[in-house]
């Protein structure tokens, strides 16, 4: 039983993979304006493997649990809507962040989404160094979540920096619309973010994958049932959530819950949308025809979704000198005690390299080769670099230097005993030779 269900999950997943390779919306297919400071090939020189690393790891993650795709897609949405796509949603201490449960929509972002992003960051930074921001990784993960679930593939403008400020509870509350909102409320809220009604309907299509807790839709069931909800659908939801306080989850697209497709819009036309904010898109006169067009034409939905995602992915981004590239996605570098040892690790390496070079020069000097002018200049510029460093790093380097001289002292002692042994061997050799000669001529 267990194995047959996991086999079928595997089959669905691999067919999604095969199918998804057929769908590619390239940036040439439409004109998506790019924000200044971002570019399609931002990491080309410094980390050209970043997209491969992210996709490879996520394929593995989704093979275990395709549900994680929805968590990652939603994470990008929450990041961008609250003070821009700056990774603030990832910060410990941000409302809606990994340790924060007090701001609604609380309980709802999957904990695993945060650890998957941190795993990706670690893989990317191990390969390239600290050159790709957490915000960029979130954007790439969301793209791959869509594509690896059967949705369109598309290029993501890159070059975001991570934010230095936390998302406050007010900002979180004010920027994430409630699922109980009607379409007019959603339209006007998202219009303040420059999103058109087409964008709003397309982005809501993100609900074609993933799950929701009862509390997000029980107001439509209790005390009275929302008359716009189809009866058998409502009956099924009441079984999952028998009271208005049940803590359970249910799929959001009953037609194809783990496949990124246009069936969400078919659900809406069947009055089987889960939230008021979903279903009302099929009531409002502006959005109703858009819902219908997406339900009939999946290709059109994919195109509009990609456009809207690229737009959303560039909301209030930090670029250039603004922000930073975090060494750990849930902690600002400034607050990161471990970050310091991380920096020193980097310094350690280059320091050891320069030490090795210096030793080499010294060996050559000892060996009598005196053409070290260039090398000494090199050493000079290293000294300059050391002087520009943070005092704490300098202290660390001083400690390293002390360690190195201790090692050197030990080596000197070793050398002494090697010379002593050598002398002993000469003596033994001499004694041995004498005894042989004695034996021969006796
Ligand atoms: C338009 C306003 C939106 C509202 C009111 C809204 C509301 C919600 C709510 C209440 C949940 C369920 C949370 C829970 O109870 O566990 C949810 C889940 C989700 N939302 Fe939205 N959302 C909106 C827009 C978006 C957008 C723009 C995207 C992405 C393009 C998105 C993607 C998702 C996904 C993938 C899930 C499932 C998460 C999971 O399974 O872990 N939503 N949304
Ligand atoms: C969600 O937040 C609301 C308001 O801050 C709070 O009343 C509620 O208890 C929270 N729910 C959970 C599950 O933390
Ligand atoms: C948060 O919003 C509430 C009302 O919406 C307001 O009274 C309060 O002053 C705000 N707090 C901050 C820190 O902006
Ligand atoms: C939508 O909700 C807002 C706020 O709750 C309300 O003022 C407005 O009348 C509602 N619009 C419709 C068309 O129901
Ligand atoms: C659940 O329903 C009861 C009775 O109708 C009501 O008093 C309570 O406030 C409701 N709780 C929630 C979380 O909606
Ligand atoms: C709901 O249940 C999950 C685990 O089943 C638990 O982690 C979570 O804290 C619960 N939420 C509430 C509001 O009780
Ligand atoms: C080291 O710094 C001094 C001034 O701070 C500068 O004159 C010199 O050219 C620098 N040396 C190298 C090799 O960069």
From TrEMBL:
One of its GO terms (biological process) is hydrogen peroxide catabolic process. It catalyses: 2 a phenolic donor + H2O2 = 2 a phenolic radical donor + 2 H2O. InterPro entries: Haem_peroxidase, Haem_peroxidase_sf, Peroxidase_pln, Peroxidases_AS, Peroxidases_heam-ligand_BS, Secretory_peroxidase. It comes from the Eukaryota. Disulfide bonds join 47-128, 80-85, 134-329, 214-241. It holds the Pfam family peroxidase. Removal of H(2)O(2), oxidation of toxic reductants, biosynthesis and degradation of lignin, suberization, auxin catabolism, response to environmental stresses such as wounding, pathogen attack and oxidative stress. These functions might be dependent on each isozyme/isoform in each plant tissue. This is peroxidase. It comes from Deinandra increscens subsp. villosa.
